[in-house]
Amino acid sequence: MTDKKVSLLVLSTCLQCKALMELLKTHEIDYDVTHVDLMPKDERSELFKKMAPYNEKKAFPVIFIGDKAIIGFQRKLIMEELGVNQ
Fold it and tell me: What's one Pfam family the UniProt record gives for this protein (predicted)?
């Protein structure tokens, strides 16, 4: 387990997003989640503006581990950052 704060930006219909949440649950990693597609339009637009320099393609999922952001379901990189043995 990790002592770093973990938060996710996901889409409710995204298979990779669901796989990431399942992976975290399997390894008993606590996380906060925001379903971007279910946000009010103005909040979603503001979020996309903030994300643009880091994620111009608006790819999902986005996982924040501590102060590091990982775009996409990059299992190996995510597990390494969390300090979880695969």
Answer: Glutaredoxin
Q: Which tokens sit at 75?
A: 């299992």
Q: How far apart are the C-alpha atoms of 25 and 65, rounded to whole Å?
A: 15
pTM listed for this prediction: 0.89
Rounded to the nearest 10 degrees, the angle between the axes of helix 75-82 and helix 15-26 is: 30
Which letter, b or e, does each residue of 12-51 get, where b requires 16 or more Cβ atoms within 10 Å of its Cβ? eebebbeebbebbeeeebebebeebeeeeeeeeeeeeeeb
The mean pLDDT of the chain is 93
Contact by Cβ (8 Å): 35, 10: yes
Q: What are phi and psi of 32, to 5 degrees?
A: -100, 145
